[in-house]
Amino acid sequence: MKTIKDYVDYSVEKACEILAIPSPSGYTQEAADWLIKELKALGYKPKQTIKGGVTVDIGGKDEKNALLLSAHMDTLGGMVHEVKSNGRLKITGIGCFNPANGETENCIIQTKFSGKYEGTLQLINASTHVNKDFQKTERTFDSTEVVIDEDVSDAEDVQALGIQAGDFVCFEPRTRVTKSGYIKSRYLDDKLSCGMLLGYAKFLKDNNIVPARKIYMHFTCFEEVGYGANAYCPKGVTEAICVDMGCVGEGLTCTERMVSICAKDSSGPYHYDTVKGLEEAAIRCKADYAVDIYPDYVSDVAATIAAGFDIKHGCIGAGVYASHGYERSHKDGVMNTLMLVDEYVGHAE
Fold this sequence. Notes:
Blueprint: H1 8-19, H2 29-41, E1 47-48, E2 54-59, E3 62-72, E4 77-83, E5 89-94, H3 99-102, E6 106-110, E7 116-123, E8 144-148, H4 155-160, E9 168-171, E10 176-177, E11 182-185, H5 188-206, E12 213-220, E13 237-243, E14 246-247, E15 259-265, E16 268-269, H6 272-284, E17 289-293, H7 300-306, E18 312-320, E19 327-330, H8 331-345
Parallel strand pairs: 3-12, 3-13, 13-18, 14-18, 15-17
Antiparallel strand pairs: 1-2, 2-12, 4-5, 4-9, 6-7, 6-9, 7-8, 10-11, 11-19, 15-16, 15-18
Helix pairs in contact: 1-5, 1-8, 5-8, 6-8
């Protein structure tokens, strides 16, 4: 019988696959289709919500004390705000996308009716040999623009390509896994967790394991704009745990090699019983973990609570550095997160 540790590489592999699929909030169908395909290949019967999320019943024994695990497939991104008179694009951010983190990044403009076009987000007047104010210019959506990789010089040229306001702008993830086990990419928040939930689902199926509790999974599609997990909580669910990114930075104890248990974020404290139970499970399975408070963070499960569901709630995740930028985690963080999920859920006798 394989152990949960044997599913680290699979989880990372699947994370890399979904990272390659553009899916800013509001444009997630391709990622949803991929998740449905992967879950069916594992022998499950996923469903898609009207809103676009993917749900699946993983099985388990105790249906009156069921657990809902969630991760989000949607990411930050951009949208065309204006086709400018010079043939370039002013964009607006989706989620908390910061133009300073997107500057010089390649992107794809996804039109509704005429395909895709490449471009790059640049500072206006981006040549340092010309712009004496290059260094001191604040990076905002007013001071940056998407330069389209087509022969365009005015708004009419761009409109002739079929590019218009409301088209999504998807930034390259630049995913890499190093020999030392580091995982670098945009959008590890939260596609790394999508890979881990698939890894956990495969672990249960491969080994014919029946969880002690009934388990549902929800891959949400509007987390980055605040309402991903507010409309799905099956009968019998008494607890929901969001598997998202663990924050890494000054004032926190988590590293990229650990699993983070969030005690409180900007939405308030997580349920005491759940936080304590997660820490007890981490101690039992000898996972390398940290308990931290996230000062500027709201997880998807806060949307579940705000929707009025009477459940306990928690939030865990592999440590991720440089959140909402070019992020970094590690395979050890994946391993420790998988260990904690498996230990917390438990197996039926």
